[in-house]
Every structure is written in structure tokens, then in C-alpha cells.
């Protein structure tokens, strides 16, 4: 008995702006799975631990989340400040941890810790123009009942996106700052 073996599917590179395609090649569905190994389509995952952490030690984001969940926001801020000086964690980990702290400050209505976290973001050359963190700062201030600070942050942004506009308008609505004529 002879078994049928299908040839491996090839990897199709993504089209570039200079690539010309016929209508047939654009609208013909590409195979969803490839039986062969394609180096161009593999995704590298970051390791769960860095050389500075072992499996028993949580990474920065996990530690910040644990502290925020237990309400220790000032301790979470202190940990972030120490990590910023030591540069142990990856940039993405720091950004995610800062975002988690800003959200927790809003949930716990802790505007003082949130203001210090905002100062930390503003002092950072990597994060000062970050859309996500600035949106979380705007939201944090409005959730804490300080829409005027939300507006100051919003007005200080060089470029504004839809999420930041939404955070500002939602903050006005949350704090009953609309005008009825």
C-alpha cells in the first residue's frame, strides 16, 4: 500500500509597496498552515525570566501587579523607581509595570502616588511621549477626581490620538463636567 505525502507548503513573503501583484495573486487565499519550517514567519518569544531572575523570583511586572493588587501602591512605585535606576528589567516590562501602577492608582483613588508615577514617566526619555502611558495618566487623574490635571496632561501632549481624546471626554463625563444650556 502506498501512502500519499503532500509536498511541503512554501512560505509566502508579505508584499512590499514596490511589489506588483495581479488581481489573481492578491485575492487568492494563501495556505493557513505550513508543513515546512519558515524562518521568516517564526516569532521569537521573550523568556519568562531574565538572567537576573530565577523561576522562583517574579519579574518586575509580576511584582508590581502583586503589590498593586494588595494595595501597596507606594511600595510598587518605590520598586519601579529602583528598577529605573538599576536598568535590570526590559523596556517593555517597565512600560507594562508603569501602566499597571497607573491603573491601580485610579482604582484605589490614590492621586498622590499617581502624581509621583506621572512624574517618573515625564522624567523618562523613553516614556514621556508614549501614547499608552499618557492615556493611562489622563484616565488616572480623571478617575481620581482631578479632571483639571487630566486636561493639563492632554494639553501638554505633542500629538493626540483618539484614545487620549476618549479618556479626556470620558473623564469630563465621569466628573459631571458637561454644560447644559
What are the salient characteristics of this protein?
8 helices, 181 residues, mainly alpha, globular
Q: Would you spell out the secondary-structure blueprint of this structure?
A:
Blueprint: H1 23-27, H2 60-69, H3 73-86, H4 91-107, H5 111-123, H6 131-143, H7 147-156, H8 162-174
Helix pairs in contact: 2-3, 2-4, 3-4, 3-5, 4-5, 4-6, 5-6, 6-7, 6-8, 7-8
Structure explained in plain terms:
The chain is mainly α and 181 residues long. It has a domain at 60-174. Helix content is 52%, strand content 0%. It is built from 8 helices and no strands. It has helices at 23-27, 60-69, 73-86, 91-107, 111-123, 131-143, 147-156, 162-174. The longest helix is centred in the middle third of the chain and has 17 residues, at 91-107. The chain is globular. Mean pLDDT is 77; it is low at 9-14 and 21-57.
What is this entry, summarized?
The protein is mainly alpha-helical.
Distance between the amino and carboxyl termini:
85 Å
Low-confidence stretches: 9-14, 21-57
Listing every helix as H and every strand as E from the N terminus to the C terminus, the arrangement reads HHHHHHHH
**Classification by helices and strands:** mainly alpha
Mean pLDDT: 77
**How would a crystallographer describe the biggest sheet?**
none
Oligomer: single chain
Q: Count of helical segments? A: 8
Amino acid at each position: 500500500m502506498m501512502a500519499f505525502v503532500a509536498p511541503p507548503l512554501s512560505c509566502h513573503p508579505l508584499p512590499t509597496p514596490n511589489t506588483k501583484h495581479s488581481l489573481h495573486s492578491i485575492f487568492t487565499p494563501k495556505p493557513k498552515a505550513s508543513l515546512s519550517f519558515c524562518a521568516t514567519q517564526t516569532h521569537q518569544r521573550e523568556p519568562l525570566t531574565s538572567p537576573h531572575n530565577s523561576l522562583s523570583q517574579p519579574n518586575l511586572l509580576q511584582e508590581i501587579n502583586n503589590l498593586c493588587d494588595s494595595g501597596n501602591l507606594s511600595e510598587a512605585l518605590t520598586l519601579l523607581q529602583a528598577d529605573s535606576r538599576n536598568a535590570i528589567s526590559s523596556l517593555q516590562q517597565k512600560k507594562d509595570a508603569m501602566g499597571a501602577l497607573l491603573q491601580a492608582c485610579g482604582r484605589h483613588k490614590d492621586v498622590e502616588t499617581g502624581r509621583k508615577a506621572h512624574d517618573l514617566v515625564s522624567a523618562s526619555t523613553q516614556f514621556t511621549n508614549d501614547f499608552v502611558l499618557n492615556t493611562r495618566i489622563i484616565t488616572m487623574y480623571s478617575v481620581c477626581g482631578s479632571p483639571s490635571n487630566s486636561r493639563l496632561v492632554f494639553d501638554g501632549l505633542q500629538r493626540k490620538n483618539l484614545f487620549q481624546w476618549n479618556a479626556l471626554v470620558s473623564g469630563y463625563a465621569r466628573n459631571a463636567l458637561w454644560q447644559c444650556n
